[in-house]
Design brief:
Helix content: over 70%
Strand content: under 5%
Order of helices and strands: HHHHH
Radius of gyration: 20 Å
Number of helices: 5
Number of strands: 0
């Protein structure tokens, strides 16, 4: 009977540990993807968006989770993506204006960014 109680206790403790690890990974990946998204918008809108960012703390919240090196990588990825957003022809329904928010949001939700974020998370774990 004591062995069963001990086994059940160890099982419950290990489940909590796994949940904590999964939550930490989820938080890290969300911070990484959010940084990419914010950087994409910031690169596209420039000073207008930069002014908005100064009035709130999303960047700092992500920085605390990712730390400097990973924030820099995610920031660079978002900025590079933004530079690739094409301007539609002037005779299109968009009157020659970029569809920035949709493109940055599409990147945020993409399987490609999920894969990159997971890969960067694994690299970060190896470098600790």
């Amino acid at each position: 009977m004591k062995k069963r109680i001990l086994f059940i206790s160890l099982f419950i403790i290990s489940c909590k540990s796994i949940n904590n690890i999964n939550k930490a990974k989820e938080n890290w990946i969300n911070a990484y993807k959010s940084t990419v998204f914010i950087s994409c918008l910031n690169q596209s809108f420039g000073e207008k968006f930069d002014t908005l960012l100064k009035s709130e703390q999303s960047i700092m919240a992500n920085f605390e989770v990712l730390e400097y090196a990973n924030t820099k990588i995610a920031d660079s990825l978002g900025r590079n993506f933004a530079l690739k957003i094409l301007t539609p022809p002037k005779n299109s329904d968009f009157y020659g204006k970029k569809v920035i928010i949709n493109n940055c949001l599409h990147l945020y939700r993409s399987k490609e960014l999920d894969s990159i974020a997971n890969s960067e998370y694994e690299k970060m774990l190896k470098n600790q």
